[in-house]
Amino acid sequence: MTQATLVMFAIFVAMALIITYWAAGRSTSRRGFYTAHREISGIQNGWAIAGDYMSATSFLGITGLIAFYGFDGFMYSIGWLVAYLTVLLLLAEPLRNTGRYTVADVIAFRLRGRSVRAIAAFTTLTITLFYMVAQMVGAGSLINLLVQRISETYAIVIVGLLMLIYVLYGGMLATTWVQIIKAALLLAASIALSLLVLAHFGFSLFAFRDAAMSANADGRTVDLLHTGLFFSGPHGAFDVVSLGLALVLGTAGLPHVLMRFFTVPTARAARVSVGWAMALIGAFYLLTTIMGLGAGTIVGQHDIGKHLRDTQAIRYIIRHPETAPQLNAELARDGYIGPEKNSNLAAPLLADRLGGPLLTAFVAAVAFATILAVVAGLTIAAASAFAHDVWYSLIRGGEGSEREHILVARTAALVVGFAAIFLSVGLRTVNVAFLVGLAFAVAASTNAPALILSLTWRRFSRTGAICGMLAGLISSLALMAISPDVMGDHAIFPLRNPGIVSIPLGFIAAILGTLIARDPESEAMFNQLQVRANTGIGAEI
Amino acid sequence: MQHHHLTASEWDTLAKDPEFLALLRARRRFIVPSTIFFLLFYLALPVGIAFAPAFMNQPVVESLTIANLYGFAQFLMAWVLLAVYMRAARSFDDRAQALVDRLTAELAK
Asked: ipTM score of the complex?
């Protein structure tokens, strides 16, 4: 299995390098590097957005969550699909019509002034870094578990360096095409696995349902169609609502997804791309449901989480490694990393059980490819926030040659890439779901209110944007820092996801700030924003 | 078509154009109710399983529970609303294009 995995992964890397070579000549300007010359078609962009969304978190994470917790895991899929309605109805077309290279461009379109852009760039960098570290830590543990000769650290470094080559030379064009190809491969793998699951039950949905209703969970029988397996305990009810809010609004603030609307030629193409993305993502989530329930019933939780023993004790050790170095070393030798990460192996193990070594190798190689492609998109989002917002707009005041800016953009990508590699190596034992949850909560509490209010509310002022983004950022980070994921049993804030508090706070602070300090200059610009957003007049081409 | 040279007062004139205002109203009439609808339709699911788990876990059809069916209904809702919006947006596009053509002709004079 190991060798076949490596060969297939090498084939994908080679393909991606060929694309990069082809794209390199077209990525020598900022327009090329950040937006692929706005020549990506609606369908292509739809596949790329879907690819961004079918990340390791979705493919491995959701399949694992559904295998272990059934319907509660499915809640993630629902939230992530419905979230695209927010993007479709409120953001895709106005973003295409008013944005140039970054999310901050849209927020600062009429809220001119350095502080708004600086904070928007900072929230973008925060969100993308959390998301990147989550993906790369996931890559590290996955590769380490599948190919034990490669340690987590090496795996993270390899993924990081490969990704940097695509981004530095191929820019947005290469990143988009790598994402499209990966999305197609991932869908193919998911369809194959789902068909095998259905075939296992003789294509009888009734037999499949009966198995899901009496899955074996380490000796206990659980009904995977029943709610409350994941969100349990005294605060489970508020946790599920909090997560639901963060999921449905978080996508509207994710820089690496929103940035894709700058790569299409027209608002219509932006809309069409959301349509394709919603069709593909929805289909993919239905497949992950089949795969997840299949893994939960056919492979069984016991085999997926072989090393899962005493969750609480192990969490404590991960958080306080100094207290139990011996036990920790023992766990590391066993390949044990954490309960959520262990459930990450549900999809590869299902492939192993049903399809044999070749299919497993294919699934594992696709999982690596997924992480690589998603991290590349995130790097461009972070690099453009630094190079375009901080350097070009704030430090150089919009001056400087094209050569200078493309150089800064590449340097920023390099810096961000290495920062992510170092952070990921340092944080390689942190729970991946926690990091992704944090990224969504920050996005939903900062960028989402600022973008939505800036595009729809005439009175929205600079003070409002600054108050909203700061309140959302600080409250989501602070609440995460005192949540059970960080503080364990003695957490001050009882919920794992801060969304239920930080998202309303972000909106309320934005509204209060606006009411306190009016801003005639920004109000006067609203007419121009509205005409541009709704007609495409004056849009970047 | 590039309009970077438009002045602030020209943008304001465009923003007060009756046809433009009509387009804006038509878009708003679609987007505001649909957004409120899908947010309520969606949030009812987490709120339901959070605060009325017994109700949501009642089996209705073939042992599938209300939560199961409502969960899949979210997919249908998302896709149907997508299709409806894509249809409506085509007419918005046509109106926006007609508006842009007219304004371009006027500006050229």
From this structure: 0.93
Query: Which region among A44-53, A400-409, B35-44 has the lowest average model confidence (pLDDT)?
Result: A400-409
Structural domains in chain A (count): 1
- Output the domain CATH number for residue A30: 1.20.1730.10
Tens-place pLDDT, residues A133-184: 888 887 777 777 677 677 778 888 888 898 898 888 889 999 999 999 999 9
Chain B residues within 8 A of A285 when measuring between CB atoms = 75
pTM: 0.90
A537 in a structural domain: no
Helix (H, G, I), strand (E, B) or coil at A149: coil
Token pair belonging to A535: 């007609």
Interface test with B, best of A78, A209, A280, A540 (most B CBs within 10 A): A78
DSSP A413-425: HHHHHHHHHHHHH
Q: What is the pLDDT of residues A71-111, one digit of tens each?
A: 998 999 999 999 999 999 999 999 999 988 999 999 998 99
Chain B CB contacts of A278 below 8 Å: 78-79, 82
Best mutation site among A74, A534, A540, A541 for testing chain B: the one with the most B CBs within 10 Å? A534
Contact residues on chain B for A225, CB-CB shorter than 8 A: 63-65, 68
Whether B95 is in a domain gets the answer yes
Q: Is residue A171 part of a domain?
A: yes
Q: Is B50 on the interface with A (CB under 8 A)?
A: yes
Q: Give the residue from B70, B53, B52 showing the smallest Cα distance to B61.
A: B70
Closest CA to A258 of A100, A371, A152: A100
Instruction: Report the residue count for chain B.
Output: 109
- Asked whether residue B15 is assigned to any structural domain, the reply reads no
